[in-house]
Design goal:
This protein is of the alpha/beta class. It has eight helices and 13 strands.
Length: 275
């Protein structure tokens, strides 16, 4: 009893809103005469997946480069916990954000373990000494990404899918708060796509914020929010239910998109045959 009133059982107070890790405030970026991301406003909080969709040339990879501070907008802001990303020292930024790009060249004969270990650089001292905590972190992500047994292989001799998992392990071992992924399941067979998605889902459940460029709208259905980038420079943000409709996707990709029912009753987006 409180103040003469019976307590209500089982009523959970609403959770306090999370402070955004990342804010995107109307960045303007030009590619030739084209303006990309017109009017884009976005907030990213911990433990969420933000899916980015759009046709080729719409600027999806460029957007990730802006978020990572590798490109600077003409105007507008990209803020990490209230600070402009472009003003944060790279070492400090690397402790908060990791970026798995579409393609990464391998010019030197690193072993898999050596390549993964490079992800610990932001946490090491000026001498680059790898300590016991670094070794344990490396061991964990090698197991997590299914690379056990490949640690001493020359990474240049791996398949495209194996290399993809090596660079995922390198990004995860940074222990970032935000993970940027550019078409993360490219080069992966179906089994390793499922492994990759399971790893990312676990990390999101543990509080990681993931922003992923995806080529398949079906992979975005479970996202927390969806960003649509059009080739005319316009953009939109909303929930999957709002953004993933046949009408919106047809306009986005410039080809008829419809839905079919999968074997488990799920809705799948498919493009109409053109020939």
């Amino acid at each position: 009893m409180t103040d003469g009133q019976p307590q209500q059982q089982g009523k959970v107070p609403p959770a306090a809103p999370q402070e955004p890790l990342l804010r995107v405030q109307s960045p303007v970026f030009r590619r030739g005469r084209r303006v990309l991301f017109s009017g884009l406003s976005l907030e990213v909080v911990p433990g969420t997946l933000t899916a980015v969709l759009g046709p080729n040339g719409a600027g999806k990879s460029t957007l990730l480069s802006l978020l990572a501070g590798l490109e600077i907008p003409e105007s507008g802001q990209i803020l990490l916990r209230g600070r402009p990303v472009s003003a944060i020292p790279r070492r400090e930024l690397a402790r908060a954000m990791a970026f798995l790009q579409q393609e990464t060249a391998l010019e030197f004969g690193f072993t898999v373990r050596e390549l993964v270990a490079l992800g610990r650089s932001p946490h090491q001292n000026a001498l680059g000494t790898i300590g016991g905590s670094d070794e344990r972190a490396i061991d964990r992500v090698i197991r997590e990404t299914g690379l056990t047994g490949l640690e001493n292989r020359d990474a240049r001799l791996l398949s495209g899918g194996e290399r993809r998992r090596v660079f995922l392990a390198q990004a995860l071992v940074q222990e970032p708060q935000i993970l940027l992924l550019d078409e993360p399941t490219a080069f992966l067979d179906l089994r390793h796509q499922a492994l990759f998605q399971a790893i990312i889902a676990r990390r999101i459940a543990d509080g990681l914020a993931v922003i992923a460029v995806l080529h398949d709208p079906n992979q975005a259905v479970g996202a927390s929010q969806v960003v649509l980038l059009s080739d005319d420079g316009s953009s939109g943000v909303g929930t999957p239910a709002e953004m993933l409709t046949p009408q919106r996707l047809t306009r986005l990709y410039g080809t008829p998109i419809s839905t079919i029912e999968g074997t488990c009753g799920e809705r799948l987006f498919v493009a109409a045959k053109q020939f």
